[in-house]
């Protein structure tokens, strides 16, 4: 029996071409184009005006040996990723599990936890200044301390990560809560009949079914940690202990230095770090599924 194929009209073809064409142009122009341009420019000393001169890996060598803010920024980005991944994300999951148990006033708690998500990180940065400022901060006023939370290089990165984590917890909580609502109640009932405790039911039955959610949360966490910029820039322009790779990219490309080639090298390193985490986890996940 011959398979009947559908013939597209000229109108259908036009709509498909326009729809796909716009998406491809936007994707290439705003994502892949700048990405490939950054990779190419990272091997030059272009300042945005003069001729482009190829210098190979000199920018990367200068980053490693002659640019002190670089290693401080790498350290802070790793700390940021570790804090969001190991503290803020599990706490968001914990809040989602509690809210899924239909606690009294759970809607109020859910709204209170999710509220920071609607704020941009720049606004969170301004709120952090109101809380942590050594002159007019709420924390010092309430506790009677005289700590310079944002000026002391040894502690300012930690208090800023707490502020960023405050926002991240609500984001993770709402994603996991949606996933928990989709878990088949029959699985929990079967585990209870078999004599499993609540913790055993969660870790051995419920949590494995959240694997797709875990992938989403991982990607979001890595992106949030590596693209953090506005909160530290709003506090002190990303200096004095709050250096991040994203801030260094901005300072070198659009700042007074106008070192586009040098800034592109930092951007490529930021891209490589983010892809390293995501590709490693996804490849392991797909290997397990096979």
TrEMBL record:
Protein name: ABC transporter permease
Protein family according to the UniProt entry: Belongs to the binding-protein-dependent transport system permease family.
Domain ABC transmembrane type-1: 74-281
Record InterPro entries: MetI-like, MetI-like_sf, UgpAE/MalFG_permease
Keyword Transport carried by entry: yes
UniProt-listed CDD domains: TM_PBP2
Membrane as UniProt keyword: yes
Signal peptide start and end residues: none
Membrane-topology descriptor: Multi-pass membrane protein
């Amino acid at each position: 029996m011959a398979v009947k194929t559908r013939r597209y009209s000229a109108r259908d073809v036009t709509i498909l071409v326009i729809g796909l064409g716009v998406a491809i142009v936007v994707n290439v122009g705003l994502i892949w184009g700048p990405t490939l341009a950054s990779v190419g420019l990272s091997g030059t000393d272009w300042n945005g005006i003069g001729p482009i001169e190829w210098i190979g890996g000199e920018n990367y060598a200068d980053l490693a040996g002659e640019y002190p803010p670089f290693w401080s920024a790498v350290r802070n980005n790793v700390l940021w990723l570790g804090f969001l991944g190991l503290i803020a994300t599990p706490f968001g999951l914990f809040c989602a599990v509690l809210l899924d148990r239909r606690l009294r006033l759970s809607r109020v708690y859910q709204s209170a936890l999710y509220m920071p998500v609607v704020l941009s990180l720049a606004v969170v940065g301004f709120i952090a200044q109101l809380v942590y400022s050594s002159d007019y901060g709420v924390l010092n006023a309430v506790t009677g301390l005289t700590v310079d939370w944002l000026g002391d290089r040894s502690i300012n990165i930690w208090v800023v990560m707490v502020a960023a984590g405050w926002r991240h917890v609500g984001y993770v909580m709402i994603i996991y809560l949606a996933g928990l609502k989709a878990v088949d109640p029959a699985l929990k009932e079967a585990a209870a009949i078999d004599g499993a405790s609540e913790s055993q039911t969660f870790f051995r039955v419920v949590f494995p079914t959240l694997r797709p959610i875990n992938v989403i949360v991982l990607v979001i966490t890595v992106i949030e940690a590596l693209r953090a910029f506005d909160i530290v820039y709003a506090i002190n322009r990303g200096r004095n202990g709050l250096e991040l790779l994203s801030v260094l990219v901005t300072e070198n490309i659009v700042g007074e230095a106008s070192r586009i080639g040098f800034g592109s090298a930092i951007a490529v390193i930021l891209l490589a770090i983010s892809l390293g985490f995501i590709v490693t986890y996804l490849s392991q996940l797909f290997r397990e599924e096979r």
